[in-house]
Amino acid sequence: MRLHCLGTVGYHPNDSRHTSCYLLPESGILLDAGTGVFRLPGLIQTDSLDILLSHAHLDHTFGLTFLLDVVFERPLRMIRIWGESEKIEAVRQHLFHELIFPAELSAQWIAIDELDQWEIGDAKITWRHQEHPGGSVAYRIEWPSGKRLVYATDTSGDTSEEHTAWSREADLLMHECYFRDASKQWAIKTGHAWTSRVAEVAGQSNPKKLLLTHINPLETAEDPIEIEKIRAKVNSEVILAEDGMAVDF
Ligand SMILES: [Zn+2]
Ligand SMILES: [Zn+2]
What we know:
Layout: E1 2-7, E2 21-24, E3 29-31, E4 48-52, H1 58-61, H2 67-73, E5 78-83, H3 85-95, E6 108-111, E7 117-120, E8 123-130, E9 136-142, E10 148-152, H4 161-167, E11 172-176, H5 184-190, H6 195-205, E12 209-213, H7 227-231, E13 237-240, E14 246-248
Parallel strand pairs: 3-4, 4-5, 5-6, 10-11, 11-12, 12-13
Antiparallel strand pairs: 1-2, 1-14, 2-3, 7-8, 8-9, 9-10
The structure holds zinc ion (2 copies).
One zinc ion binds next to α1.
């Protein structure tokens, strides 16, 4: 399986990164819809697109308003947008308010609240609540080949036994790492993860690959998160996500 990183920061874009958006082209699944969505057209391989929203914050939803241009360049038979019902409602009422975005988006909006699991093509999807202002959800995607991906963003990092069991031994764990350890207090205050917490979460769930996402856009150093601290604590291959990167797993 291949994952394309279209947007790898939280909050706002910077000179080298757009906000959260990742594509699984073989399955036609998009993880979140931040400003990286404009990069989609040349990468789509399917005639449908299923967008899994972690929550409604703008760095995960603003790119939904770019989809009209995406389908202009690369027509799609169907777009489905999945998320918790109150988040979907907020996006539809506010982001797609006629005074904010005056065009109609042709898409199906599907609430996941009552769904324990569902299928997108041959991929099986499950989800879990996470701690974050307003709440967010993590997704787990499993394919018949046995491949498994876990996407956990906008979370302070769940170290519970339940989360560890649910996310255990993924082929690819995508986990946010917005803050360095020095800013741990900010992380706790804003519902985000910091370097040592990510090392703890990944150390427990033991993925084959760990992709660090949702970087702080104010961090422009080559190593914005002290990645060696994580490498020292996990057996996984640890990768810092960058826009334009493709990750095979
Ligand atoms: Zn975010
Ligand atoms: Zn958020």
